[in-house]
Amino acid sequence: MKAVFVTEFGGVDKLRYEDLPAPVLGDGQALVRIHAIGVNFIDIYYRTGLYPAAPPVVLGMEAAGVVEKVAPGVTEVRPGDRVAWAMHRGTYAEYAAVPAWLLVQIPAELDFQSAAASMLQGMTAHYLTHSTWPLKPGETCLVHAAAGGTGRWVAAAARIRGARVIGTTSTPEKARIAREAGCDEVILYTEQDFEYETKKLTGGRGVDVVYDSVGADTWEKSLNCIRPRGMMVSFGNASGPVPPFQPLVLSQKGSLFLTRPTLMHYCATRDELLWRAGDVLRWVLEGRFRLLIDKVYRLADAAQAHLDLASRRTAGKLLLVP
Ligand code: NDP
Fold first, then answer.
1. Is the shortest distance between the CB of 66 and ligand 1 below 6 Å?
2. Does ligand 1 come within 6 angstroms of the Cβ of 132?
């Protein structure tokens, strides 16, 4: 089968689009023929080696397709089922062997591309707003990169929770996209001082929680935007990893809470996974979240998708098709 993988970490020149043996079905797994693949920033981290893995590393953490075979004893899915999943690496390929408990049935009304565009970023927004800091009506959150793939979902999920949403993004066109996704206010953090603007928008109090996927560039000022005993949720590194810091800083800034969560730990059981995926796919079906698929690339063009995502030129979701 064709797959995209790296044997050495680095730039997009290290991506190899070549034949690999089809995956062997392990205990508890299902073999899925892939129809659509989600592109996520985490794929870049695995390509560059920021997130460690032993080469060869087949990239990709999200996809949708049809079950072809299941291992003995698997009960969650059957051959012929249309399924989607996230959090199991190896989706930049024509086939994947996936732990069956991670697979979610795609509702009949949804196509493969919509399902692949929803799982990772949608469930991330779900856990951030429902579990990490369960937003309540009357609370205010700050969402960085709010026109991005994950950012649009976080803004929408926060709005669904009844919170006021302040978003940041880099261009006026992206600001329009962020507003349409659910932001009440948008700050152009490339032109405006987002700390100053956030304080102004909250009457000097600060927000209850910051959802920060940008990392290095926004870290310091984000801490200054949070009200005493609020939370800093640092969940990504699009601009680079957050530098080392002293916990004492959290006390000085108002006894803040800090967490660095990841989706896997918030879909720890099948029940939790089905709860989050069920909500997210329903939001899409009911039109409470409008999918924005920026571009669909051929699997062979994964390098271009990585370049586009890293260059801040995209809004919403990028997909690959094998
Ligand atoms: P996005 O579609 O959000 O793309 C990244 C966006 O980040 C850009 O469009 C850009 O928006 C913004 N950005 C700011 N500074 C930079 C920079 N220096 N280089 C590149 N982009 C920058 O990507 P994803 O939705 O795939 O991922 C966003 C982040 O969320 C990643 O860090 C990812 O790892 C994290 N994430 C974490 C999860 C978790 O569970 N911990 C799960 C899912 C995602 P703008 O132009 O508006 O500034």
1. no
2. no
**32 CA to centre of ligand 1 in angstroms:** 28
Looking at the domain assignment, is residue 152 inside a domain?
yes
Residue spans of the chain under pLDDT 50: none
The phi and psi torsions of 69 (rounded to 5 degrees) equal: -150, 150
Asked if residue 71 lies in contact with residue 18, where contact means CB atoms within 8 angstroms, the answer is: no
Percent helix, strand and coil across the chain, each rounded to 5? 35, 30, 40
d(CA 79, CA 100): 12
Same domain, 171 and 210: yes
Residues pairing with 231 in the sheet? 209, 257
Q: What residues have CB less than 8 Å from 93, skipping those under 6 apart? A: 1, 2, 3, 4, 20, 23, 34, 58, 60, 299, 322
**Does 125 lie in the same domain as 42?**
no
CA of 174, closest atom in ligand 1? 47
Mutate which of 168, 312, 318 for ligand 1 pocket (most atoms within 8 A of beta carbon): 312
Nearest-CA residue for atom 18 of ligand 1: 239
> 127 in ligand 1 pocket by Cβ < 6 Å?
no
Instruction: Determine the Cα–Cα distance for residues 106 and 214; give it in Å rounded to an integer.
Output: 31
Among the three residues 244, 263, 282, which one is the final residue of a domain in this structure?
A: 263
Distance 148 CA to ligand 1 centre (A): 6
| pLDDT given at position 14 | 98
Structural domains of the chain, count: 2
At residue 160, the pLDDT reads 97
Q: Assess whether 152 and 106 both reside in one domain.
A: no
Give me the domain span that covers residue 207.
121-263
Domain-embedded: residue 269 = no
